[in-house]
Amino acid sequence: MNEKELAPHIEDINRALKGKASTDEIEKEIQNFQNYGISLDNAKRAIVKKFNGDPSLLSVSSEKKINDIRGDEKGIDLKARIVSIQDKTIEVDGNEKTIFYGILGDDTGTISFTLWEALEVPLEKGDTIHLKNAYANTWNDQAQVNIGSRSNIKLLEDDEVPPFESEPQVCDLTDIREGMRNLVITARVLSVEKKVVQTDNGEKDLYTGILADETGKVQFSAWHDFGLEEDHVLRISGGYVRSWRGVPQLNFDDKAEVEFLDHDELPSQEDLRENTVLTISQLARMGGAVDAIIDAVMIDIKTGSGLIFRCSECNRVIQKGACRIHGKVDGEADLRVKGIIDDGTGALTAIITKELTEDILGYDVEQAKSIARDKMDQDAVKDELEERLIAQPLRVRGNVTSDEYGLMLVASDVKFKTVDVEAEARKLLDEVCV
After folding, report:
1. Which of 11, 130, 188, 271 is 20 to 30 A (C-alpha) from 430?
2. What CATH superfamily classification does 280-421 receive?
3. What is the pLDDT of residues 112-170, one digit of tens each?
4. Which residues of 21-42 are buried (b: 16+ CB within 10 A; e: fewer)?
5. Which of these, 298, 300, 278, 304, lies nearest to 397 by C-alpha position?
6. What gap in Å lies between CA 430 and CA 378, rounded to an integer?
7. Strand, helix or coil at 121?
8. pLDDT tens-place string over residues 383-418
9. What are the φ/ψ torsions at residue 234 (nearest 5 degrees)?
C-alpha cells in the first residue's frame, strides 16, 4: 500500500496505542509484516499488542472493494461473491495439480481470481466469501486476485455482500476481457452446435460456436435455446466473459436478451471469416483469440522442430530415445515447426503441426525419415525448414492462447504471402508524409 493508503491505518494504530509508539516505528512494523504477506488487519492487531495497547480500540478496516485492487499487492482483505468458478489441471515440477479459477464480484465490479490450493469445502458459484491475506498481480493489463496457501477463506451469508450491478457495456469482440459482464455485442453466427453437458443440476443443453464482427471472432456458450442458427446476425445484451488459457469466451444464459437483426447489419460470413487480420499487439491485449489471422515473418525456428519422435504412451517429444515420464521407448516419428513469428508489433510462438509441415516441405514424414538416415542427421529436415521459412512473409491462422510464457498459436493454416514491394513502399511513404 502507498503512503496515502496507509495513513488512516497508521492514525488508527496511534489512537489505539495512545502515543506508546512513534509514527516511524509503526510504519516500520507494518512494512515488516507486509514483507511476510500478513494481512494489514492482522498486522495492526499484532503491532498494538506488541506495544501493550488494546486491539479492540482499532476502528479502521483494511477491507478492499474490487475496484480498489490495482495489482502487485499483498495482504488483501476482500468480501465478494463468486460469479463463476472452474477447475483445471496443470503440471508443477512434473506432477499434476488441480487449481481453480473464475470471477469474483461485489457492488463495485468484478475481477478474475485463481485459487492455487484445494479446500476442504469446495467453493461454488454464488457463494459469498470473506477472503483474507490474498495477493494480486497484473496479467494482460488487468488486475487479478490470487489465493494461496497462506490465504484464509470464510463463507458468509448471502446478504453480507451487495449484489453486483453494472451499466451495459457496448463493445466490439476484440475489446472483451476476462471478468466483463452485462455486455452488449453485435455479431454474426459463423457456427453453432448443440451439446449435452453434465452440471450439478443434471444434464443441460449447451449451444456453442463462433461469433464474428468486423474486429474479430470469439467462441461463445449459450446456456439457453435462443434458436440460434448459422449466419444469424444478433445483438446480445447481458453477456459475460470467462477465459480459458487466456482466451476470452462469451457466455450468455436465459437472463440475457437476444435480438435478431437484418442480415446486412454486418459483412458476410465469408468476409468475416477471411478478412479480419489481427496484430500480435492486439492479441496480447486480448489475451488470445479463436481462429485468428496474422500477417507476420518467421524469425526463428526452435530446437525440437523438423523430424521429431514422440512417446507412444503420452505423446511427449522424446530426447535421445527416452521419454521423461516413461523412460526408454520406441518413438513414433512426427513432423512439426516450433517457431517465432513477428509482425512488427510483437512476437509469439507458432506451432505448425505435421500435415501443414508436410505441405511446406513437399514430402511426408516417411520421406523425412529417409532424408535424415541418408544424411545421418536428424536436424537435416529442420535445416530445410529454416531455408523455406526464415524471413518469409506468412499468413498464419489458428487459435491463440496465453499463459505465463506468453502467446502461442497452433496453426490451422499457413500460406506464403506475396508482397507488392512497390505498393508497400508507397504506403510507407504516405505514412511518413513524404
Report:
1. 271
2. Nucleic acid-binding proteins (2.40.50.140)
3. 899 998 887 788 888 999 988 888 888 766 788 999 888 889 898 887 787 666 678 89
4. beeeebeebbeebbeeebbbbb
5. 278
6. 47
7. coil
8. 999 999 999 999 999 999 887 778 999 999 999 987
9. -125, 150
